[in-house]
Amino acid sequence: MQTSFKISATFFCCVLLGLAAAQAAEQQDTQSFVYKKTKQADLELVVHYPPGWTDHDKRPAIVFFFGGGWENGTIKAFEPQSKHLASRGMVAARADYRVKSRHGVTPKECVEDAKSAVRWLRANAAKLGIDPDRIVAAGGSAGGHIAACTAFTPGLDAEGEDAKISSRPNVLVLFNPVLRFVGIPELMGRISNNETLGKAISPTLHLTKDSPPTLIFFGTADRLAAMGDEFMKKSKELGHPAELFTAEGQPHGFFNRPPWQEKTTQRMDEFLVSIGYIPPGEKKE
Predict the structure, then answer these.
(1) Which tops the pLDDT comparison, 116 or 23?
(2) 101-130: per-residue pLDDT in tens?
(3) Contact 140, 256 (CB under 8 A)
(4) What is the pTM assigned to this prediction?
(5) Calpha distance 41→36 (Å, rounded)
(6) What is the CA angle 59-256-136, rounded to 5?
(7) pLDDT of 14 over the 70 cut
(8) Is 58 in contact with 90 (CB distance < 8 Å)?
(9) Cα(212)–Cα(225) distance, rounded to whole angstroms?
(10) Choices 3.40.50.1820, 2.60.120.10, 3.30.70.100, 3.40.50.1110: CATH for 31-274
């Protein structure tokens, strides 16, 4: 009986050590930072590090912004995509930002926070082991909108930040994003019909030939899909590099559900391979 107890105790200790090691490994793979302090809240950015990462690296990075109509949403969104891209060698981040339900703000402040997040990544590139010239902004719905605005919106920079450090990403990956406020009464109402602001946060209006390469996802049954068509039409006219992935018959938010989460993640992977941000991976059918 005594021998049996010793074996069981040893086994139990090993299990505890294993769990502790697994937890430590998980913590080592991710790290949380406060990228911005506001009067409403401190804003968090969760970073996923790839295998073999060191702070001496210069890896490409991506930052995801959750959707929720500028009113709700959670930083847990895009966790699967972040883990995937970290496994492929990128530094992947998920950024919190202020929203109406929790902080009493409008889309204007949401855009400001997104620009702050991109600027923070670039300013801290050395300690994060990332290349400041290979930063991707990404997001879904309202998060896709504010990601796009980091590339297109003039002004709306947070007071006190170093404007010499660009908040403009090098690449965009946008999941059913809002790409225009002007001319859309429902959206303009969210910003008190401020025409100047509406134009500023309408990404398609600011598209140029030299805008960041862009991948856009839309379901054909999404009422916002026409915004993707408009963006692509203007992009083609300008000679701007952009691609549109469409999911036949799918509604808004389709990319969050199987099998489309896997399909869109794979297409995002292929796009990032095509621009040299990650190496070719195993081909999936």
Answers:
(1) 116
(2) 999 999 999 999 999 999 999 999 999 999
(3) yes
(4) 0.89
(5) 9
(6) 25
(7) no
(8) no
(9) 20
(10) 3.40.50.1820
